[in-house]
Amino acid sequence: MPEFLFAQAFTLWGTPTTWLEIAAVVIALVMVGCNIREIHWGWPLAIISSLMYFAIFWRSKIYGDASLQIFFAAVALWGWYQWLRGVRPDGTAIKVSRLSRRGLALTIAACAVLWPVTGLFLKTFTDTDVPWWDAFPTSVSLVGQYLLGRKYIENWAAWIAVNVVSVGLFAYKGLWLTLGLYTVFIALSVVGWREWSKRL
């Protein structure tokens, strides 16, 4: 990625904010707006935003979240296809729906397993100073992305949990603009949940 993108645009609470972070924030906000309205163009925006945040997080040694961005970029292609051509097991087009009790139990179990596994991996194989805090949003985001791609309304609950923990993580790392973005994401996730509830 060109080095000029990491040039300082301004200082926020004593920490430099780069042009890359500014651009990533704007694109991410538009992406979430598209998701709330079920506009499929949010998925290609997700790819662009994710690649930008990969570079930002890697420089900040938040390796779990950095790696997650590559996953997001790849899964965004799948999500885009799901929203355009995906079907339910009965052959009907994908639309907003709720998880079954079994699906909800599997979702919670997946989060409960992925968090410690991811945290242990980061603690063992990287030099991150926040392995467990980094692991939580990383692991729950994996689940949230799947739920979003299949238009399960519970994806918004997953994103609320991810965004709340991420706010604390980014405050610790001094990524103040991104912290502001994730604070807005919390509110947008609530809005998304309410909007999707109307479509059930």
Summarize this structure as a short list of keywords or feature phrases.
mainly alpha; two-stranded antiparallel ribbon; globular; 200 residues; single chain
Account of the 3D structure:
The chain is mainly α and 200 residues long. It has one domain (15-87, 96-199). Helix content is 73%, strand content 4%. The chain is built from 7 helices and 2 strands. The protein has helices at 19-36, 42-59, 63-85, 101-125, 131-149, 155-173, 176-199; strands spanning 8-12, 15-18. It has a two-stranded antiparallel sheet. Helix 1 runs parallel beside helix 7, helix 4 (101-125) packs antiparallel against helix 5 (131-149) and helix 6 packs antiparallel against helix 7. The radius of gyration is 17 Å and the shape is globular. The model has no long low-confidence stretch (mean pLDDT 91).
Secondary structure layout:
Elements: E1 8-12, E2 15-18, H1 19-36, H2 42-59, H3 63-85, H4 101-125, H5 131-149, H6 155-173, H7 176-199
Antiparallel strand pairs: 1-2
Helix pairs in contact: 1-2, 1-7, 2-3, 3-5, 4-5, 5-6, 6-7
Number of strands: 2
Shape: globular
Number of helices: 7
The total domain count is 1
Strand content: under 5%
N-to-C CA distance: 42 Å
Short description:
The chain has helices spanning 19-36, 42-59, 63-85, 101-125, 131-149, 155-173, 176-199, and strands spanning 8-12, 15-18. It is mostly helical.
